[in-house]
């Protein structure tokens, strides 16, 4: 059995911060941010727009797109590094909000690779015949974990959620490759220990996302093409047979570098970070939903999804668009 994507959905907060707004907060410029990252705007959660709120809306949109009722969902996996609470899980809260009363629900943390790991985990359950339908969600309110005084990180991130519904079918294409490198975890961190710096009466800096941007950049441009090559070999396919490469939307320069290394046209690499920034686990499902709703995906298209981020973790999965 193979899990096929039969619906997608997304939801982003209403409030939009453009680069100019950030230039009023830290020493930066619209020109620098666009040139070095490809980001022009990001959506920022306010008030009731929590991680669970965005995730639940995205999930409902995905179910509607799939033409399915919430009661039909048997598994919900929510990937997030910015849950509203430690427990209950984001997935259980989504279940409650959408009325997916028959689902088994849990969260998964693989940072920016989270949606990819959720896809692979759901596929493992579906391929074994344990469940027939799964809802996988990537949802983040990274604005809560962002140090708005640190120009090296605050210009990158945004909030949002994306979701996909998978249904088990007899035949189809799916292959996956994943890797983790805990030894290098120190280059991208955010701790929940010792939240308060009592001497300065402020949140301790390490409770916000901290990143060695150059090291993460080098890791992404070398490991993503490697993972894609490994995946193609495993699936016994040629890179030319792939119609779309959906990469985690961290930096446009990373995506251009991967396209070049794979000797593929950049047109095969859709990009939406201009509008949303880096939304971690939500970036790939938001992109998938944007493409689905724009009619950019044809039945039978071969899609490689590739994520990379904290852990360090990375991987690539191959799906066939069947919607
Ligand atoms: O989703 C998780 C995965 N995350 C990523 O994939 C992020 C990967 N890394 C990156 O995207 C890039 O490394 C950044 C966009 C974070 C930084 O770009 P960079 O080209 O690596 O810049 P840099 O850190 O080498 O800094 C270059 C210069 C420095 O000035 P000096 O030392 O050359 O005088 C920085 O101080 O740019 C300066 N700088 C800035 N200038 C204006 C750093 N941040 C800013 C800023 N505005 N926001």
Question: What features would you highlight for this structure?
Answer:
four-stranded mixed β-sheet, binds oxa(dethia)-CoA, globular, 323 residues, alpha+beta, 15 strands
Brief sketch in words of this structure:
With 323 residues, the protein is an alpha+beta fold. The chain has 10 helices and 15 strands. It has helices at 19-23, 30-37, 51-66, 90-98, 114-127, 151-154, 213-235, 252-261, 273-276, 283-293, and strands at 2-11, 15-18, 41-44, 75-79, 104-108, 133-141, 159-169, 174-180, 188-189, 196-197, 202-203, 210-211, 244-247, 302-309, 313-320.
Would you report the number of β strands? Answer: 15
The helix content, as a percent range, equals: 25-40%
Overall shape: globular
Note the total helix count.
10
Q: How big is the Rg?
A: 19 Å
Provide the list of bound ligands, each named once.
oxa(dethia)-CoA
Q: Biggest β-sheet, characterized?
A: 5 strands, mixed
Structural class: alpha+beta
Our measurement of the CA-to-CA distance between the termini, rounded to an integer number of angstroms, reads 17 Å
Low-confidence segments, ≥5 residues, pLDDT <50? Answer: none
- Strand line-up across the major sheet: 1-7-6-4-5
Bin the strand percentage. 25-35%
Spell the H/E element sequence: EEHHEHEHEHEHEEEEEEHEHHHEE
Q: What is the residue-mean pLDDT, rounded to a whole number?
A: 97
């Amino acid at each position: 059995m193979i899990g096929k994507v039969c619906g997608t959905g997304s939801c982003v907060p209403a409030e939009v911060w453009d680069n100019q707004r950030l230039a009023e907060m830290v020493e930066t410029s619209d020109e620098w941010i666009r040139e070095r990252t490809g980001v022009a705007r990001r959506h920022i959660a306010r008030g009731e727009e929590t991680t669970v709120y965005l995730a639940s809306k995205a999930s409902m949109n995905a179910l509607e797109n799939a033409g399915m009722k919430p009661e039909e969902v048997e598994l919900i996996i929510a990937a997030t590094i910015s849950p509203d609470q430690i427990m209950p899980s984001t997935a259980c809260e989504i279940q409650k909000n959408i009325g997916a009363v028959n689902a088994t629900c849990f969260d998964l943390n693989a940072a920016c690779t989270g949606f990819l790991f959720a896809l692979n985990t759901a596929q493992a359950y579906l391929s074994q015949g344990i469940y027939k339908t799964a809802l996988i969600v990537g949802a983040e309110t990274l604005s809560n974990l962002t140090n708005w005084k640190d120009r090296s990180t605050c210009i990158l991130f945004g909030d949002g959620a994306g979701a996909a519904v998978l249904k088990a079918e007899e035949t189809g294409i799916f292959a996956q490759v994943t890797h983790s490198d805990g030894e290098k975890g120190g280059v991208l961190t955010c701790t929940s220990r010792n939240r308060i710096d009592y001497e300065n009466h402020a949140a301790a800096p390490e409770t916000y996302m901290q990143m060695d941007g150059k090291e993460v950049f080098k890791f992404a441009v070398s490991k993503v093409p490697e993972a894609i090559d490994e995946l193609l070999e495993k699936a016994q396919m040629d890179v030319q047979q792939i119609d779309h490469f959906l990469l985690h939307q961290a930096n446009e320069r990373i995506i251009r570098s991967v396209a070049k290394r794979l000797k593929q046209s950049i047109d095969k690499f859709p990009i939406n970070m201009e509008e949303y920034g880096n939304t971690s686990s939500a970036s790939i499902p938001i992109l998938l939903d944007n493409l689905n709703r724009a009619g950019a995906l044809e039945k039978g298209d071969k899609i490689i999804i590739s994520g990379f981020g904290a852990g360090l973790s990375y991987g690539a999965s191959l799906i066939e668009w069947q919607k």
